[in-house]
Specification:
The chain is built from six helices and three strands; from the N terminus they run αααβααββα. By secondary structure, the protein is mainly alpha-helical.
Length: 127
């Protein structure tokens, strides 16, 4: 069994301790952030959010692009909606979804856009 390295001596720098305590999220904020990351645990949700990061879209269009059923898309969107990530508006008989401007929506939009940018740069040899 491989041992995990630990410090053999105490060499705590109080300046580092104070600086980092101010930087890291509070316990409650860390829980909120973890919940947001948990929402990204599905490839379907990642792909839906990727589409919605570019434009508003109706369920039937998203289903067609992904090659999955509308009920399946609606199921994923429902959990995202319940967590404040996406919202929808009616446009005639269509439900048009978009990423919300609420805290979770803003956070996820930034994550998705950053991931897409990193992937594009990596694919083009810029990483």
């Amino acid at each position: 069994m491989t041992s995990i390295p630990i410090c053999d001596a105490s060499h705590v720098d109080e300046n580092v301790i104070e600086r980092e305590k101010k930087r890291i999220p509070s316990e409650d904020d860390a829980i909120d952030i973890a919940e947001v990351f948990a929402l990204l645990g599905s490839p379907v949700k990642i792909r839906l959010l990727s589409m919605l990061s570019h434009s508003e879209m109706c369920v039937c269009t998203m289903a067609e692009i992904l090659g999955i059923s509308q009920p399946n898309v609606s199921h994923h969107l429902r959990s995202l909606r319940q967590n404040g990530v996406v919202r929808f508006k009616r446009s005639g008989k269509r439900a048009v979804y978009y990423i919300s401007n609420e805290k979770n929506g803003v956070m996820i939009r930034r994550i998705i856009e950053d991931i897409i940018l990193i992937e594009e740069n990596f694919d083009h040899g810029e990483a």
